[in-house]
C-alpha cells in the first residue's frame, strides 16, 4: 500500500504537457519489499508497513462497489445516508477513498480537513456536489459514472413523453379520487411528433435513438459539434429548437451558462402546448416561469425529476410551485434509480477508484490530468502532484541525478493548475527520492505507491 508524504495545496497557471512511458507489461498488484540495513544507494529500501486503504461509502451505494473494494483487500465502511459538512469531516479521519452520490457535499473546507483523502468517487453522473477546483488544488482526483445510468434515464424520458401526450397523470389521479373522466381531448400519439433534445451527450443520444424508433422526429441542440445518431438532426440555436419541438427534453450539466437556461424568454419561444421534461439539473429551469406558463396553458405539460433545492433524506417534506398543476409529472430525482443502473455505477466508479489506488491511474477523472502508466516489474512507483510552474521537472530530475537513480518509466500530465507525475524507479533510492521531492516548494502531495 502507498506511503504518503503530503505538502500544502496551492495552484497557479502554466499549461504544458509531456508524456513518456516504458514498455507495457502485465498488471500486478502492489507488493511488499523486504527491509535492509545496507546503504540505500546500494540495496533496495524498505517501504513502511501500511494498513489497507480505508474506504467510506455513503448514501446506500450499491453492494457491487463494496464487493470490488473488499476483493482488493480494502477496509470498507458503509452508511445508508449522506453527511453534513461537520459530520463528513469527522468521518473522513484516516479515510483514503470516499464514495458519495448526490446529497453529500465535498466542500473546500472538507478537503482542507481531510489530509488522508486521496480520491473521491461520485456514484452518479453529476459532480457539482464536489468543489472540483479545491479538489484539484489539493491533489485529489474526482471520478464519476458518465455511462452507467444512460439507458435508465433515457427510458424514463420516453415513458414520460408518452404519459404527457396522453395526460395519464391526470387520468390516474382522477380515478384514484373516484372520478371517471374518459376523454380524447388534447391526447395524442407520439408518432410523427417532434422531440427536441437539449444537450446531446450519452443520454441525449440514447433518447434520440429510442424516440426515432417510436416514429418521432428528433432535433437536438448542443454547444459542441456532435455526430448525429440515425436521422437525428442538429440545430444551430436553442430558440430554433424550442420553436419546432412538441416535447423538449433537457440533458445538460450544471454550469453558470446553464443556470435558468429555460427561463421565461426561452419558454416564450416554445410551441404553444408543447411539453417540457427535465432530468438534468434543477437549476436549469426557472420553476416559477414554468409554473406560470403551465397555468396560462402556453406549456401543455411538464415532467420534472430535479429541482433547485431537494431534500437530503427520504420522507422529508417537499414543496414546489408545480404541485397540483394539470398534466405535470413530478418525481424525486429518480432518473438513474434502477437496480441495473445502480449496479453498473457501483462497478464503474469502484473500478476507477481501485485502479487509482493500486496503480495511480487517473483515467476518467473529471478534475485531474489523466495518466495511466502500465506497471514495471521490479520497480517502486512514485506519485507526485505539484503546482504547475516552470522548472518542476528540472528540479525532480536533478534530485534523481544527485542520487544516481535510474528511472525505468516516467509520465507527466498537466492542466492549468497542477502537474501529475508518475515515476517507476529502482528500489534502492525510491524513499529518498520521494522525501526530497516532497520537500520542494512546488509539492502538493507525494507518495510511494508500491
Automatic annotation (TrEMBL):
Pfam families recorded: 2-Hacid_dh, 2-Hacid_dh_C, ACT_AHAS_ss
Hydrolase keyword on record: no
Low complexity bias spans: 1-17
Keyword Amino-acid biosynthesis among record annotations: yes
Residues covered by the D-isomer specific 2-hydroxyacid dehydrogenase NAD-binding domain: 159-335
Keywords, comma-separated and alphabetical: Amino-acid biosynthesis, NAD, Oxidoreductase
Alphabetical list of InterPro entries matching this protein: ACT-like_dom_sf, AHAS_small-like_ACT, D-2-hydroxyacid_DH, D-isomer_2_OHA_DH_cat_dom, D-isomer_DH_CS, D-isomer_DH_CS1, D-isomer_DH_NAD-bd, NAD(P)-bd_dom_sf
One Gene Ontology MF term: phosphoglycerate dehydrogenase activity
Ranges where the record places region Disordered: 1-26
Entry superkingdom: Bacteria
Signal peptide range in chain numbering: none
Domain D-isomer specific 2-hydroxyacid dehydrogenase catalytic span(s) in chain numbering: 55-367
GO BP field: L-serine biosynthetic process
Primary role: Catalyzes the reversible oxidation of 3-phospho-D-glycerate to 3-phosphonooxypyruvate, the first step of the phosphorylated L-serine biosynthesis pathway. Also catalyzes the reversible oxidation of 2-hydroxyglutarate to 2-oxoglutarate.
Family: Belongs to the D-isomer specific 2-hydroxyacid dehydrogenase family.
Protein name listed in UniProt: 2-oxoglutarate reductase
Native source organism of the sequence: Chondromyces crocatus
Amino acid at each position: 500500500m502507498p506511503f504518503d508524504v503530503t505538502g500544502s495545496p496551492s495552484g497557479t497557471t502554466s499549461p504544458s504537457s509531456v508524456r513518456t512511458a516504458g514498455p507495457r507489461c502485465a498488471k500486478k498488484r502492489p507488493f511488499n519489499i523486504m527491509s535492509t540495513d545496507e546503504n540505500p544507494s546500494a540495496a533496495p529500501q524498505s517501504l513502511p508497513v501500511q494498513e489497507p486503504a480505508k474506504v467510506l461509502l455513503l448514501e446506500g451505494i450499491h453492494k457491487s462497489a463494496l464487493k470490488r473494494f473488499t476483493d482488493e483487500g480494502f477496509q470498507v465502511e458503509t452508511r445508508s445516508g449522506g453527511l453534513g459538512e461537520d459530520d463528513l469531516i469527522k468521518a473522513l479521519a484516516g479515510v483514503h477513498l470516499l464514495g458519495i452520490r448526490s446529497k453529500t457535499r465535498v466542500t473546500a473546507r472538507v478537503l482542507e480537513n481531510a489530509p488522508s483523502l486521496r480520491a473521491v468517487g461520485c456514484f452518479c453522473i453529476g459532480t457539482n456536489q464536489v468543489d472540483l477546483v479545491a479538489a484539484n488544488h489539493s491533489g485529489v482526483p474526482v471520478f464519476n459514472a458518465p455511462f452507467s445510468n444512460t439507458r435508465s434515464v433515457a427510458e424514463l424520458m420516453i415513458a414520460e413523453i408518452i404519459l404527457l401526450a396522453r395526460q395519464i397523470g391526470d387520468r390516474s389521479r382522477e380515478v384514484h379520487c373516484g372520478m371517471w373522466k374518459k376523454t380524447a381531448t388534447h391526447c395524442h400519439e407520439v408518432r410523427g411528433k417532434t422531440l427536441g433534445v437539449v444537450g446531446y451527450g450519452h443520454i441525449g443520444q440514447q433518447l434520440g435513438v429510442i424516440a426515432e424508433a417510436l416514429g418521432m422526429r428528433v432535433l437536438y441542440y448542443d454547444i459542441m459539434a456532435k455526430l448525429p445518431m440515425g436521422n437525428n438532426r442538429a440545430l444551430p440555436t436553442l430558440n430554433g429548437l424550442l420553436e419546432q419541438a412538441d416535447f423538449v427534453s433537457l440533458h445538460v450539466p450544471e454550469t453558470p451558462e446553464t443556470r435558468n437556461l429555460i427561463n421565461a424568454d426561452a419558454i416564450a419561444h416554445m410551441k404553444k402546448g408543447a411539453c417540457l421534461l427535465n432530468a438534468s439539473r434543477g437549476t436549469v429551469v426557472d420553476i416559477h416561469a414554468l409554473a406560470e406558463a403551465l397555468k396560462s396553458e402556453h406549456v401543455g405539460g411538464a415532467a420534472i425529476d430535479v429541482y433547485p433545492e431537494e431534500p437530503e433524506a427520504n420522507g422529508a417534506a417537499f414543496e414546489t410551485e408545480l404541485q397540483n398543476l394539470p398534466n405535470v409529472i413530478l418525481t424525486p430525482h429518480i432518473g438513474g434509480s434502477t437496480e441495473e443502473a445502480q449496479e453498473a455505477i457501483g462497478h464503474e466508479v469502484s473500478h476507477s477508484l481501485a485502479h487509482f489506488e493500486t496503480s495511480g491511474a487517473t483515467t476518467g477523472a473529471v478534475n485531474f490530468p489523466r495518466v495511466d502508466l502500465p506497471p514495471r516489474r521490479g520497480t517502486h512507483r512514485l506519485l507526485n502532484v505539484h503546482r504547475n510552474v516552470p522548472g518542476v521537472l528540472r528540479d525532480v530530475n536533478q534530485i534523481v541525478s544527485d542520487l544516481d537513480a535510474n528511472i525505468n518509466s516516467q509520465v507527466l500530465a498537466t492542466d492549468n493548475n497542477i502537474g501529475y507525475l508518475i515515476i517507476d524507479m529502482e528500489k534502492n533510492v525510491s524513499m529518498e527520492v520521494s522525501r526530497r521531492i516532497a520537500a520542494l516548494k512546488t509539492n502538493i502531495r507525494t507518495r510511494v505507491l508500491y
